[in-house]
Amino acid sequence: MKKFLKYSLWSAAVVVAIAIAGVVYIAATFNPNDYKTQIIKLVKDKQQRNLKLNGDIKLVFFPSIGANIGKVSLSEFQSDEEFIYIDSARVSLALLPLLSRRVIVDEVSINGLKAALVKLKNGKFNIDDLLSKNETNQEKTPLEFDIASVHVEDSELTYLDETTAAQYVLKGFNLNTGRIANGVPGKIDFAAIIQSNKPKLNIAAQMKATLTFDLKKQQFQMDGLELQAKGAVLDISNLAVLASGNISANFDTQKFSAKKLAVTATGVQGKNNFDAKLDAPELNLAQNNFTGDKLTLSAKLDSAFGNIMANLALFDLAGNPQSFKSSALALELDMKQPEQAFKIKLGSPITGNIEQQQLNLSNLTLAVNVTGDQLPNKSINSEMKGGMQIDGSRQSIQANLTGGLLQSQIKAKLAVNGFQDPAIRFDIDVDQFDADLYLPKKAASVAIKPSPTEQPLDLAALKNLNLEGGLRIGVLKIANVKLSQVRLDVKAHNGLITISPLHQGSQKINAQTTPHIAINQNLTP
């Protein structure tokens, strides 16, 4: 037994010594640069592309086996135009795992990569000739690999679609990873400047995450996602976006999910500054069906129109690419202007059809509070209930509301058809209305002639007004006079406005022949 062990050790030592001697001999005598001409000719004959090897090829055998390549370029198919260029590249294999017949890439490092992917006008791509044309029906075994790290620095990737003239570019592309292997979490650090012309885009982006994948089960998990982006999109400048969360995908079962997803965005659009935040504790997508416990969106807008703050929440969200529903929608809107402020609260279950662009608020509650020095008692409050339907495909809005405004109770029906040139129809019932609350406290007389200092009222916008409806008031108080059972019918077509009757009589205004009218109303009790 001792002799057998002794001879075995000696045999192993001899084999290792011969292997080392062979490696040393190859390293000392083999020069891969001597084969550049043959390699270039082989690529030209097989691929009809021009390969340039301007840098040296260096082989490394210890502590890992690999090769260093410098200044390599490859032309387009049957052309001298450059397709890909690499300033330098290094690939190495871990030495010890090779002894047990396992291939582990120790490092992949690429510097100064420039590549252009082009979709030609005929629908083909400029890399089609490089792809394998031999397809079999045999089930392919998932690729197995183990890479200790990948480093890509100072690179540029371009995609050009000649059919649409759209171009997308990744400049300053940098990628650094930890271990990349099946079932092993690995760090990813990515940075690049993203530019495109359709849509207009210029963004500096950086992403960090931990990636875990299982190629056999087609599962991918990205934990601790941190995404930052700054730049300009379309007409939005000074854009800054932050995103975080955990994302998982199973392409075999078509299941996707996002947890603790948070996205914030700030920017400037024209003269408007905005600030928005999206929170989604959990979103799930399974075979085109999505669910979410709660989705919240908050936004701020500073503009010449005023300062607006909005908060939107959707509960028990569920649906698919065609339709969706939520057990409760809650919207709070706060708008401040120099002379007044508005607070609006809206709540309702909501259903929608994305394909038909339909939205249904079936049990709507709407509360409005308006404050301002010019308002009666400096405040107006209203609470309405009812329903609203929006049909984008037919360009129509239907609303049916009842509720209170100050001391009044209101029932209102509203219909809008056409969004470009809307046709508005309304029917409103008011039990009582005190107009004196909205009139100036000091009033002397009623005059129809404008004073020299008054600006005429421009009614040119009424030329395109398409309005028809009726207003009924049970008791109307105006100038300290009470009127009962008041009915007001309004029609506006082709610039002609007809109002009849206001308790008695009628009034007509022709906006086509009288585009400018000045009115001075001073009512006395």
Can you describe what's shown?
The chain is mainly beta and 525 residues long. Helix content is 9%, strand content 60%. The termini are far apart. Mean pLDDT is 82; it is low at 4-17, 135-139, 443-448 and 504-525.
Topology diagram in text:
Elements: H1 2-29, H2 36-47, E1 51-53, E2 57-60, E3 64-75, E4 82-94, H3 95-99, E5 105-111, E6 114-119, E7 146-147, E8 150-161, E9 166-177, E10 180-181, E11 186-197, E12 200-214, E13 219-233, E14 236-250, E15 255-269, E16 272-286, E17 289-303, E18 306-319, E19 323-336, E20 340-353, E21 358-372, E22 379-391, E23 396-405, E24 408-417, E25 423-434, E26 457-458, E27 466-478, E28 481-493, E29 496-500, E30 507-510, E31 516-517
Parallel strand pairs: 5-8, 6-8, 25-27
Antiparallel strand pairs: 1-3, 2-3, 3-4, 4-5, 4-6, 7-10, 8-9, 9-11, 11-12, 12-13, 13-14, 14-15, 15-16, 16-17, 17-18, 18-19, 19-20, 20-21, 21-22, 22-23, 23-24, 24-25, 26-31, 27-28, 28-29, 29-30
Short description:
By secondary structure, the chain is mainly beta. The protein has helices spanning 2-29, 36-47, 95-99, and strands at residues 51-53, 57-60, 64-75, 82-94, 105-111, 114-119, 146-147, 150-161, 166-177, 180-181, 186-197, 200-214, 219-233, 236-250, 255-269, 272-286, 289-303, 306-319, 323-336, 340-353, 358-372, 379-391, 396-405, 408-417, 423-434, 457-458, 466-478, 481-493, 496-500, 507-510, 516-517. The strands form 3 sheets. The chain has a 27-stranded mixed sheet that branches.
